[in-house]
Amino acid sequence: MPNTPPKNFLICTAKYSDNLGDGVISDCTEYLIKKASPGSSINHIDIAGRTQYRPSAKQDIKLAKKIFFFIPHFLQPVMTLVAWHLFMKKRLDDAWSKNAPDDNFLLLFGGGQLISDLALNFPLKFNHLINKTKSINAKLATNAIGVSSKMSALGKFLYTSSFNSTKWIHLSVRDQESQQALKTLINDSKDVALTVDPALWTSECYNLENDRPEEHPEIIGLGIAHPLELSAHIEKSKKIPPEETLKFWTDLTIKLVDAGKKPVLFSNGSVEDVLFCEEVYAQLAQQGYSSKIELSAAPLQPVDLVKNINRFHAVISHRLHANIIANSLLIPTVQLGWDAKVKSFAKIMGRESSCFEKLPTASIAFEAIEDVLKVGIDKAHLTKLKQISYDNINEIVKRYRA
Questions:
Q1: Percent helix, strand and coil across the chain, each rounded to 5?
Q2: What is the pTM of this model?
Q3: Over the stretch 31-43, which tens digit does the pLDDT of each residue have?
């Protein structure tokens, strides 16, 4: 439509989270909108009201987060509600005032696990943003969001009232489990399209050349996440034990070294993950392996994470977007399935055999890495998935123009 005037988009993601996979989602969503709607105005709002990436890797876990990790589950929503009224709501309001157009725009929830009731954290923020569009000329859409099937009564109420708005023009989720969960949440009152995560466009978004050397040793990326950080997002009965996880990573690293490969420890950037990554490295250094392995520099921006991953011949990781970014860069992955979303992505990629629901032994993980190195990435299937992702963004643009 050459004579169609450009549109205004406000992309809402967890853009400035220190888990930089969320930043990659945001960047790739912007890339796809520019591809589908050249010349459009694009602004961003972080769903937590953050306005920048953290300036330094040398940070400790904040006291509030430490308390949140260790207080009983039934007290966590209370802590969130107190924080919401003390500072969280104001921070989000300030970000809205700074970034939202005055009128006539599309608020696009651009991806990530945004429909998730982590002690009311996302329900409060999501509902507050929807309410801000009531008195202005704004439309609403979701692109490739993740949806949790379990939430509190209050969390469900906040989300249900949000989706009752008449301003929604398109709903889409990133996997079948999220599709079913959202349909259940809204009682099938609206169509819910199935698409794939926009981070599969990482390679094009960041315009990176293949950075992997042809010669041996093969460089294996070990994407390490803090067990307590992962456990905060799952059921109490499924907590991930730190000692067992530490042993898994050290044993696997040693096996890779003994096999003549080059292990590189890396994280997606969150303070917790960086600290646990350093703990794994320190444990290996005590055993005399510091000269045979590498601790990757902690990434501070999404492009840093992408460049770190682009060096590897294979990746093994808990973090969903370490796996998605790697696949976009044609790097095969072994996925450690701590959450349903990881297993769902493996299913979409047709790689369920290389995804473990429970932490495997180091020997089994090593064999899985060897297998994926041989198989590689199905480029034709990846291209098909990326087209689905682009088509969904293009559909959103068309409905917005209508």
A1: 50, 15, 35
A2: 0.94
A3: 999 999 999 999 9
